[in-house]
């Protein structure tokens, strides 16, 4: 039986998937918070539906992080978290933390992926 070769994941993809994975839990808890406080406009259950939709978008983003679509969906999720702060102000604190993590993941992940690509190219040029 032949072993399957795993696809090489970049640092950026790894960092962003970790951030989104933890943020799924926070989005679910934030939806429950808005529901429990009846802070959503209209019916209280709208918060649960909106939270569920954002979680589904996050799962799609996790599956597509190897393409630009996944990163764009991640930015959309960050925007949704900031917008949720208008319903319950304390959510802005959590949204700011995850936005900072997301920016760091995009910036530093891209920087490290570029550095690793240059290192691999130098190794190949040296004939190793």
Give structural attributes.
single chain; 128 residues; mainly alpha; 4 helices; 77% helix
What's this, in brief?
This protein has helices at residues 11-36, 45-63, 68-84, 91-126. By secondary structure, it is an all-alpha fold.
Fold and architecture overview:
There is one protein chain. The protein is mainly α. The chain has one domain. The protein has four helices and no strands. Helix 1 runs parallel beside helix 3 and helix 3 packs antiparallel against helix 4. The chain is elongated, with a radius of gyration of 18 Å.
User: Which radius of gyration do the C-alpha atoms yield?
Assistant: 18 Å
- Summarize the helix and strand pattern as letters: HHHH
Q: Give the low-confidence spans.
A: none
Q: Name the shape in a single word.
A: elongated
Q: Approximately what portion of the residues adopt beta-strand conformation?
A: under 5%
| DSSP strand count | 0
Strand-pairing-aware structural class: mainly alpha
Sheet bearing the most strands, described?
none
The portion of residues assigned to helices is: over 70%
| Mean pLDDT value | 93
Total of helices: 4
Distance between the ends:
29 Å
Q: What's the number of structural domains? A: 1
